[in-house]
Design goal:
By secondary structure, the chain is an alpha/beta fold. The chain has one domain: Rossmann fold. About 30% of the residues lie in helices and about 35% in strands. The strands form 3 sheets. Strands 4-3-7-8-9 form a 5-stranded parallel beta sheet, sandwiched between helices. Strands 1-2 form a two-stranded antiparallel sheet. The longest helix has 15 residues. The structure holds adenosine monophosphate. Adenosine monophosphate binds next to strand 2, strand 7 and helix 5.
Length: about 170
């Protein structure tokens, strides 16, 4: 089995979660497996190693797992994009629609270095609303998005088209 098929074999698809009609891509078996976790981190690191990423925005909650590990590998800072009411200090907020809900994301004011090269990281790209909101927060913070990295892309939902112009990469596509 090749490296990517190995990772893909560790993704669990849960039908009708969290709502009827949603096929939820559960990454927990994949991150529990040391080899699969290393492979996906190696893949994303290689894709962005030459992009001089200075700060990574990880999207709550699964984007924190990959974002933190990638920040360590790429020598970048890490900025959490959190759900409302979780950040203790003053924050910018952006609202958006997901595949199954309406939500908002927040980032602490003053998180970004001026003009910093930022990579936005999440586990799944579905309709693109979440990653677009994170990108809007980067712009509000005075930095710029040089790329988006996802472990899984649900290509049939067309999320890519919603993202601002930047490099968009995913390890596993459905
Ligand atoms: P979207 O804004 O539609 O691109 O949704 C992306 C966000 O919702 C990510 O943070 C994902 O973790 C989560 N998400 C959306 N759809 C799924 C799915 N089918 N399986 C797992 N996570 C999903």
């Amino acid at each position: 089995m090749d490296r990517i098929s190995y990772c893909s074999s560790k993704i669990r698809t849960v039908p009708d979660f969290p709502k009827p009609g949603i096929a939820f891509k559960d990454i927990t078996p994949m991150i529990a497996d040391a080899r699969a976790l290393q492979i996906v981190l190696d893949e994303v690191t290689e894709l962005f190693i030459d992009d001089r990423v200075e700060q990574i925005v990880g999207i709550e909650a699964r984007g924190f797992i990959f974002g933190g590990a990638l920040a360590a590998r790429l020598g970048a800072g890490f900025i959490p994009a959190r759900k409302p009411g979780k950040l203790p200090a003053e924050a910018d907020a952006v609202s958006y629609d997901t595949e199954y809900s309406t939500a908002s994301l927040e980032i602490h004011k003053g998180s970004f270095a001026k003009g910093a090269r930022v990579l936005v990281v999440d586990d799944v790209l579905a309709t693109g609303g979440t990653a677009k909101a994170a990108a809007d927060l980067v712009e509000l913070g005075g930095a710029r998005v040089v790329g988006f990295a996802f472990i899984i892309e649900l290509g049939f939902l067309g999320g890519r088209a919603k993202l601002p112009p930047a490099k968009v990469e995913s390890v596993l596509r459905y």
